[in-house]
Specification:
The chain is globular and about 40 Å long. The protein is about 5% helix and about 50% strand. With about 130 residues, the protein is mainly beta. Strands 2, 4, 5, 6, 9, 10 and 11 form a 7-stranded mixed sheet that branches. The N and C termini lie far apart (about 40 Å).
Length: about 130
């Protein structure tokens, strides 16, 4: 019942764009911080971006600032990540996440307990 389902991943050339979508169900989406993590093979999972529940405030990790834009549509229980000017370094599995706070995106190392709900992930591959 409680789930996050990602879509929109794929294969692109450097400089290209993708838009990830994540549809939520089974919990009060409007009351949750929602956002994205990513994990490349052999690398630690890292927080990419989130958008808050109330005022819509956003966070981006430094490496994606100016290139990625997060947004949410509460009427559709959906969070988006628009990814522009993609780089090879962006190649990863992108996981949608939801929580009632923002601690999980900043924790180092990541502790999964900080995030209440995880999606299964969408693969993004960027070629040189």
């Amino acid at each position: 019942e409680v789930q996050l389902v990602e879509s929109g991943g794929g294969l692109v050339q450097t400089g290209g764009s993708l838009r990830l979508s994540c549809v939520a169900s089974g919990f009060p989406f409007d009351d949750y911080v929602v956002g994205w993590f990513r994990q490349a093979p052999g690398k630690e999972r890292e927080g990419v971006s989130y958008i808050s529940a109330g005022d819509g405030g956003t966070y981006y990790t430094d490496s994606v600032k100016g290139r990625f834009t997060i947004s949410r549509d509460n009427a559709r229980n959906t969070v988006y990540l628009q990814m522009n000017n993609l780089k090879v370094e962006d190649t990863a599995t992108y996981l949608c996440a939801a929580d009632q706070g923002t601690f999980g995106w900043h924790a180092t190392p990541l502790d999964y307990k900080w995030i209440e709900i995880w999606g299964q992930g969408a693969r993004v591959t960027v070629t040189a």
